[in-house]
UniProtKB/TrEMBL annotation, chains A, B, C:
Coiled coil: none
Pfam family, one: DrsE_2
Name recorded for this polypeptide: DsrE/DsrF-like family protein
Organism, as annotated: Mariprofundus micogutta
PANTHER family listed in its UniProt record: CONSERVED WITHIN P. AEROPHILUM, PEROXIREDOXIN FAMILY PROTEIN
Signal peptide: none
């Protein structure tokens, strides 16, 4: 089944920047890649926060507004839990519970995704609105693309919106 | 590729009524329609708020309960941000940031969707529960349908739940 | 169209444990099954709460952390609304509005799903992290599986992430 032309495809739109949903996105992505699918992850809106080089809070952007949003949203280490967040304490507790049970952490999942050849794409429009440039993002980001390009490349793929 | 029978289909379930998610739904929908897909948007639950004629808060419905829910949920101009909402200030700031970067606004996206021939369908059950009638909704709503009808029409489509 | 080999498939990832989203998941699932699709529901993360035997709050798990999370998350009768939750009052009001309009309640939907032959699968990793064992869950749960197994079984299915 290794012939690229027949390879099953999975495309994941990572819209949410919640810690738990990003974990879910990378778990599905790496699971799919490990079972020989061609996987693309398209990060948009809040999801962009998972790709920022500054993993903590940083006032990225030019305008005051973009700076404020970027600061408030934070980065990979500040992602909130979609429920029971308790001002950011819960993602840390959840991380601890995952570690205790030998489940891969978020940075490990990002690394695994890259190693498995998952294509990581950042949404052009979201970068534009939030004034995040390619140099503000981790080097695992392979491409910047618009939604039309993403949809065209996902023509034969399962599209999963997270 | 313009032969209708072979036209790729995309069906979007607009469940969420969050400002950012509705923007995402319309962006994907118009992007798909612009690249020659047949697109259906099925609005249910909170998503219905984006279709109400009263774009502000209005006590639509007959029972006190339905009126209260409809009032609290608001309409197209009151959609909250899924995160960092700050009592409704953020969607306005985000709208400003979008305008500044020449990104289409939500009303513009609704108009574009209509112009591109995207089929806008309202969920019968959600209308029933929330006591929203067809006359309470914008005229761009072409159809009212149940989930089974929607699924049947989406048999060969990508289904995206937002 | 009743030949199993050609039967259309729908796979739903129930990630969210919100009352309204679980209702949506079961509504789509039963609608799909009723129109002759083969449906699998894969419950992970917060979604697991809908499958717990203890439908109220209970400190399931061994470690203090797992107990705390399970208690705070609650069960089928404590699922919050994704918006306007008001400390759990709204899901009850919404349930009342559904009953008034003869819409199936959540326990009825779970029962219908089972009767329609929908396969209910619990996510192994989420059970592991939250220390929920198979005996903690309702008997309608037919299987425990990892994400790779789920993806393999969903190869020809619509995948819907809720």
């Amino acid at each position: 089944m290794n012939i690229p032309a027949n390879k099953k495809k999975v495309s994941i739109v990572c819209f949410s920047g919640d810690f738990d949903k990003i974990i879910a996105a990378f778990t599905i992505a790496t699971g799919a890649a490990a079972t020989n699918r061609e996987v693309t992850m398209f990060f948009t809106f809040w999801g962009l926060n998972a790709l920022k080089k500054n993993k903590g809070r940083a006032a990225t952007g030019n305008s005051i507004m973009a700076k404020a949003f970027n600061f408030l949203m934070g980065g990979l280490n500040n992602l909130p839990l979609s429920r029971l967040n308790f001002f950011g304490i819960s993602p840390k507790l959840m991380g601890g519970m995952m570690k205790k049970h030998n489940v891969a952490s978020l940075p490990e999942l990002v690394e695994a995704a890259h190693a498995l050849g998952i294509r990581i794409v950042a949404c052009e429009m979201a970068m534009h609105i939030l004034e995040v440039s390619k140099s503000d993002m981790i080097e695992e980001v392979q491409d910047v693309a618009g939604v039309a390009t993403f949809l065209n490349e996902s023509e034969d793929a399962h599209i999963i919106f997270i």
